Amino acid sequence: MFLALGPGQAQQFTPQVQEFIAVNAPSVALTDAKVIDGTGRPALLHQTVLLQNGRITQVGPVKKVKVPAGAQVINCAGKTLIPGFVMLHEHLYYTMPAGPFFNIAQMPYSFPRLYLAGGVTTIRTAGSIEPQTDLAIKRLVGEGKLIGPDMDVTAPYIEEPSMDIPALNTVKGPEDAAATTRFWADKGCTSFKMYMHATRADLAAVVREAHPRNLKITGHLCSITYREAAEIGIDNLEHGFMASADFVANKVADACEPNVRQSLLRLPQNSPEMKSLINFLVSKKVALTSTLPVFEPYTDREVVLGGGLEALIPQLQEREMATWKQNQRKDTASLRLFKKEMAWEKQFYEAGGLLVSGTDPTGAGRTVAGYANRRQLELLVEAGFTPVQAIKISTLNGAIYLGREKQIGTIEAGKQADLVLINGDLEKDIRQVRQMEIVFKNGVGFDSAKILESVKGKVGLN
């Protein structure tokens, strides 16, 4: 076994994990870096960041920070340091149809690795299909037996019977929803996700059970409008405004209407109705998760977002290539709605809303853990956010939502040493986020490229 010091305790790693550790010393000095610290403050040049036993102990100009004797020194000239991503719509599963049915399958080996290699040091799984597996992976990562991020595990979906998705959990009414909440809270799940056909009564039942335990509820909604959910007490809404049924004409209560997408396509980008909804959500302190990768159009864009085609098994590479070719020049409506969604997310942010980041590796199968997280940062910049803002949304804002902003989310003295070393300048070219070299979690530096290489051709197997 290999000894590595974490905050407050010694952590051990198995040989299978040790193989991918590039930096592991009690004292580390990252010198002459450009630092984008996650707070939203401007980037700082020529900075030294000191790490000691898994914590950040000092951040300051090279000329003012003294490197301790015996520290491992890493020269970061020409490179950027950012906090580890804290992303809140992640899954440990991937799109794998079951015959004619849409379905999803657990990826317990490849996805945790991909997340960490992609700079993600903390995730919330926004809905589980194998919660017992997710909880076990969380434990195994914590014990140094698997490579992966820290995890907040969400319980199985709270969804009424409606869709023929074999892996999807369902409940029958609010009493069942409440019982499900109690059961998985006792098992260690820290959040709950309402799904498309859940009713207002279901949500109210989950709120009554979860909130007294200081646990939170999010939702990919349809039957319930965003305004209704905020009134009942939901904490978070997924997919930006893409799942908002608030603009469906003559909407039937507790019914998932088929024309949500059309109502959003018809809604003007700068409509007073959207402004009113945004202001209401902000007043209720409801966070909004941006999941731009899962909605990215096909035309003139990558097959697998963030460049992860080689991560898939050959059969899935063929599937994704065929789907990509079939959709070229056929997604103009998707592009229009995608651009609107970007604008609405920016309006929410500028109104003072807590915008957080995620990727949702489901959809058609183009969204792959790790690669998509880097792509999310690029897409936020495409939406008009500065690189500094995009990093804050993807780091500190997620930590604030989780209530962990005193421990993670920024590069500041006293914080857990979760940070990413990138070979390039993100303010000059955000796509250089793909040039990750070392991902530090609890002060232990993992070799990003080596991990990615180890998972090539694995997604779809496990």
Automatic annotation (TrEMBL):
Q: Which InterPro entries match?
A: Amidohydro-rel, Metal-dep_hydrolase_composite, Metal_Hydrolase, Metallo-dep_Hydrolase
Where is the Amidohydrolase-related domain positioned along the sequence?
81-434
Q: Which Gene3D superfamilies match?
A: Amidohydrolase, Metal-dependent hydrolases, Urease, subunit C, domain 1
Checking Pfam families in the record gives: Amidohydro_1 (PF01979)
This chain's protein is named: Amidohydrolase family protein
Q: Which organism is it from?
A: Hymenobacter jeongseonensis
